[in-house]
Amino acid sequence: MDDATLARFADLVVGFGANVQDDQIVSITCEPGKEYLVRALAASAYRHGARFVDVTWFDPWVKRARVELAREETLSFVPPWYGERVKALGEHRAARIALSGPIAPGLLSDLDPVRAGRDRLPAVKEGIQVVNDRTTNWTIAPCPQPAWAGLVFPDLPADEGLARLEHELLHVLRLDEEDPIAVWHARADALVSVAERLSERRFDALHYEGPGTDLTVGLLQNSQWMAARFETAEGIQHMPNLPTEEVFTSPDPTRADGHVTSSKPLVLVDGTVVRDLKVRFESGRAVELSEADWRRVIGTNLDAVFFWSQEASRRMLAAGRAGAIVNIASMLGISVTKGVAPYAVSKAGVIQLTKALAVELASKGIRVNAIAPGWIVTDLNRDYLASERGAAIKDEIPVGRFGEAGDLDGALLLLACDAGRFITGATIVVDGGQVVAVRG
Description:
42% of the residues lie in helices and 19% in strands. The chain has helices spanning 3-17, 35-47, 60-69, 80-91, 113-118, 126-133, 146-152, 158-172, 180-201, 291-319, 341-361, 382-385, 388-395, 409-416, 434-439; strands spanning 25-30, 52-57, 95-100, 137-142, 205-210, 213-219, 226-227, 230-231, 237-238, 247-248, 251-261, 266-267, 273-274, 278-282, 285-286, 323-328, 366-373, 427-430. Strands 5-6-11-14-15 form a five-stranded antiparallel sheet, with no helix packed on it. A four-stranded parallel sheet has the order 2-1-3-4, with helices on one face. Helix 1 packs across helix 2 (35-47). It is globular, with a radius of gyration of 24 Å.
């Protein structure tokens, strides 16, 4: 890519995608091998009046070393400043730019997938919070480099493959147009118009057909279609993805039926390549589960709890201090419904693990208890719980409402403080009475 084209590319990402404002802090998240575009983006950001450009690198080879060699119980640890940094970007109303495109596809493929699944970096949970709060204007843009080109054009020599990938990306980014930003504004307007017309049609379901795919996905009654043009709380428009042809809505999680097959490899954020993915759904549940999927659920929900508890108790003992461990189970570990076998088994395991650890550690001054939440409203399930099916669930809850995050505070404080000093091995169900109503 020549310097002039690179500068136009950077200006599109900065000036239109992220829509960087005068005096904004700009965060760029990237990986080794993408330095050329990072530097062009930084220059463009400063031309657009940025106060400061902050670059954060994530090295997948370092992650590989961790997954391969680190102690099991440390793999899910995330340094707290990672999340605090993301929240600080929101507090400072920063602009955020991330660069996509795999630099090391398949790097973790020969390692234990359960161990790899415990290290979720570079993703952090605070990222969802900042997006939902609409405190930053952000975008994700592609960065062509040889490893990606090798995946897309495996039969071409490396230099020809990279040139071909750059050519294709520049085309779909509209950078072969005289004024790509004007073209993108027009395209964004068109996508918003499409989303509005789809909302007006009030579709009940979507049906997908293709090689290995015959899937029907139901929609929530009040679902609204949206285009990928977002607006911050302060009214700054931005495009979360460049390029994008996306319109989207909220599916009904209980109305997915049929089977789906990925026709192309899926490259995850950590570089993992998923090939030949096949899933069959009934009433929103995946009814055919591979051994790897089973192990992933058990690893996340049960193994991680054990290793975190082990590490916490080790540190308490080393410090010569008494302490309290509070695990998170679920009402589904007590009362089971259809379609959640791996999850229910893992959460039942957490309840039994809590009892076992309580017996083992009681003589050492460490109490171990658990909380089993019921339906707690979060950003992930808010639309579903507001639907007719959510209303049916609410009818099963004796207190007549769903829980809020703050409803867990009382149980947590009791189990963590001296007021609960004679409680160990217990699981407190916080579900508005739903389990009692179902089981008696």
